[in-house]
Amino acid sequence: MGRRRNVPGLTQPMVFLWLLSFLSLALVHCKGETASAPPPPLIKVEVADVIQKDVPIHSEWVGTTDGMVNAVIRAQVTGYLIKRPYTEGSFVKKGDLLFELDPSKFKAAFDQAQGDLAKAEAQFIKTKQDVERDTPLAKQGAISQKELDDSIQYHAAAKGSLAAAKAAVETAKLNLGWTRITAPIDGVVGIAKAQIGDLIDINSELTSMSTVDPIKVYFPISEQEYLQASEKVQQRYKERETGGEYKGAALELILGGEQVYPHKGQFYLVDRQVDVKTGTIRVAATFPNPNNVLRPGQFARVRAVTKTREKALLVPQRAVTEMQGSYQIAVVTPENKVDIRPVKVGERAGNLWVIDKGLNPGERVVVEGLQKLKAGMTVEPKPFQEPVDEKAA
Fold it and tell me: C-alpha dihedral over 175, 181, 184, 187, to 10 degrees?
């Protein structure tokens, strides 16, 4: 039999405690190796409730402004330009002087025509007196009938000469008057196309002007849109004929930089025919322009409410994702699970989008964080906060 060897310095209780500690550490180590890793944190997303309400649907068209009345200012006589008293681009009233041509030769022609008229009047009076004198003499046989006939003929010729002289005076007067070119309408005058000292020919364009308050806006609409609005168009024409108050939808004008023009407009007229190349018909609307801010030739968008969608479902536009012509939305279920759904979209209303099919009232849709999501994921939703427009602030 062998003998049990004792380890120097270790008693039996100390060995027992050492073995117990070793086993405990080994057990802890094994548990650490077999324990699962902690779950990843939930993805945070911003959600918005599906809104249900009646929505006015707007239609927009690209238009061009034009004067209510436009006039091209042309010369009607030939002469040298000596005055241009108006300020280019300013507002002038009907009858205000715009240009003046040298009137010297026209004044001379007018004076000569008046002199010729005086001669013609004197000749007319003389021949008339001759006829009055010769008529009783011819009856008495004191003069021949031929002498009386000659007096009558001279008087008739003098009468024609008098009419021609009067016409020449009127022509000379008109030509002299046309050396002063005045505004035919109230409106804004454009930049002059002639300078002082230029020789102006007949029919030369000097400038143009437009009445701009109110101002017209032309824009094309489709043939279908016109047919849908045809009854309102006829109603508007009747209102204009009878002087009645406009009862149609107010029109908005959106200028460059998305600036909304402060004055509302109204429908004015529809062109006589549809453009066969585009299938559109041109429509005109009028807008008040009290400070002449709008000028002809500006591009703007015309917007109007064309119908109302009742009990429409709406979501923020940024909640809708387009994939190769189809649209989808991420819906968060009551269990905070992600459900990716295809949807059918309708019209846009401001920053919202009408959803025709695929959603139910009261559901929640993901607005921010869409790129991180997959169907079936669990997320941590929080209410969507609309970003503040720094420009508006």
Answer: 170
Angle ∠(366,371,373) on CA atoms, nearest 5: 65
For residue 219, which amino acid is it? F
The CA radius of gyration of the chain, in Å to the nearest whole number, is 47
266 is written with which tokens? 């109204």
Domains 46-55+310-383 and 103-178 share a fold: no
Indicate the domain borders of the chain.
Answer: 46-55+310-383, 60-66+211-308, 103-178
Could you tell me how many residues make up the chain? Answer: 393
CATH superfamily of 60-66+211-308: Efflux pump adaptor protein, beta barrel domain (2.40.30.170)
Q: How would you classify the pairing of strands 43-49 and 379-383?
A: parallel
Average pLDDT over residues 364-374: 80
Q: What is the pLDDT of residues 371-393, one digit of tens each?
A: 777 888 888 888 887 765 544 43
Report the phi/psi class of residue 247: left, alpha or beta, with left for phi > 0 and alpha for psi in -120 to 50: alpha
- In whole angstroms, give the CA distance from residue 234 to residue 86: 42
Q: Which of 181-195, 209-223, 359-373 has the lowest mean pLDDT?
A: 359-373
360 Cβ neighbours under 8 A, 6+ residues apart: 50, 313
Q: In whole angstroms, what is the distance from residue 58 CA to residue 308 CA?
A: 9
The residues that bridge with 52 in the sheet, in sequence order, are 313
> Which tokens go with 160?
């024609």
Long-range pairs of 359-363 with CB within 8 A, sequence gap ≥ 24: 359/50, 359/313, 359/315, 359/329, 359/331, 360/50, 360/313, 361/50, 361/52, 361/313, 362/49, 362/50, 363/49, 363/50, 363/331
The pTM assigned to this predicted structure is 0.67
Distance between CA atoms of 268 and 283, rounded to whole angstroms? 8
Architecture of the domain delimited by 46-55+310-383 = Beta Barrel (2.40)
Cα(375)–Cα(369) distance, rounded to whole angstroms? Answer: 13
pLDDT of residue 185: 93
Per-residue pLDDT at 1: 44
Q: What is the mean pLDDT of the chain?
A: 84
CA-based torsion, 167, 171, 174, 176: positive or negative: negative
Give the Cα separation of 116 and 121 in Å (integer): 9
